[in-house]
Amino acid sequence: MYQILEARELANSIYLFVVEAKRCAASCEPGQFVIVRTTEDGERIPLTVCDYDRAAGTVTIVVQTIGASTLAMKDLKAGDAFHDFVGPLGQPSEFIKEDAEELKKKKILFVAGGLGTAPVYPQVKWLHEKGVDVDVIVGAKTKDMVIMEEEMKAVAGNLYVTTDDGSYGRSGMVTKVIEDLYAEDKKYDVCVAIGPMIMMKFVCLLTKKLDLHTIVSMNPIMVDGTGMCGACRLTVGNEVKFACVDGPEFDGHLVNFDEAMKRQQIYKTAEGRAFLKEKEGDTHHGGCGVCGGDK
Description:
There is one protein chain. The protein is of the alpha/beta class. About 30% of the residues lie in helices and about 30% in strands. It has helices spanning about 20-25, 70-75, 100-105, 115-130, 150-155, 175-185, 195-210, 245, 255-265, 270-280; strands spanning about 1-10, 15-20, 35, 45-55, 60-65, 80, 85-90, 110-115, 135-140, 160-165, 170, 190-195, 215, 235, 240, 250. The protein has a 7-stranded antiparallel beta sheet. Helix 5 links the parallel strand 9 and strand 10 (about 160-165). The longest helix is centred in the middle third of the chain and has 13 residues, at about 115-130. The chain is globular and about 50 Å long.
């Protein structure tokens, strides 16, 4: 069992948990994720690491309540425990492999949409600790849905908050802020965009025009988290990849977002999963016990 040391609501339907998970905290890196189960027979939920403290042996996760399993998590409090907390899984951010002095020469922009603020934060924090200042755009639908603003301010070089309805910060989508920054003669070497699939798609459409290398995180399409269920199968360039084992981060300009979003919808039904299994054959993957790909 993995004890919850802190539990709090960040915004409507969005909750933060600090979990005692010493082995995971000892080796996890920004960009990776964990698999959480609330009970022995509960659903496996992949969640990107929001923060970690090696000395304290804790890992922080942020959850948005969507289905039955995540709804059950909202009532958990400090002193309760998760049955399973497995990780770290996936590949860490590519920044982890780069030399800090080289990173200081780059102008880096992070774009976080909604819940994407949580996985953006550990990357920005890691870079800040290495002496690398980056710009961050945080977008939300309304003021009440902006999360982790103070935490992000503490580690970002410049923070730009925007809301779709203009109720807080700048007004408009994150893409408008990128356009505004470029109009102000700001230029970047690399962009990291994490958030809803549709947001990442439109960020990539814009950054491609700007000739700005863009990394995206495909964690929204993960289900099983081990590469066995086939849910997170996607096309990157001309290659089949799986977000949970090959990613979750990829070159955004090579990701086929339309295919991934269509596939995500098909995967939601039993008929859809059977169709994909038949259509994709050996490249589908199987073994999770959910899609029937192991039978």
